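User: Here's a chain of 134 residues. Predict its fold as tokens.
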Amino acid sequence: MGFFDLFKPNNQDTLSRDEKEAAKILKDIFHGYQNGDPNYIPNGVEKLAIGLYYLAYKRTNKKVFRLEDALNPMTMLNGNFKGVHYVGVYSAIKTTIEKTCNNPVMLRAVITIQECEQAILVVLKTSATSISKI
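Assistant: Prediction complete.
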């Protein structure tokens, strides 16, 4: 824990400014899917999943393991196979977003920003827990 971590709010049930921005992006992605344009934000699901992966790290005390390094053959030759698990966390985030966006119930529902914020909070908590266990 660093010096500046003392000033961070410890309530894990609230979203930071960046996490609220992710909720707005999720709402825009839902809007695109509901209007029949899943590419309303090009590569939106993938970019959001990457962003949530890194935001989940902020909820842990671990050093960030960059996705770019996760499947690097040199990293694996050195005996560090944890990258595969980190890619699994990213894949789970991406799959969750895709399945939610393609859910017929969600396609007909009116999605509010509060619901998006709650969804982001659940994904971040789950992902942070998974990252902490690696």
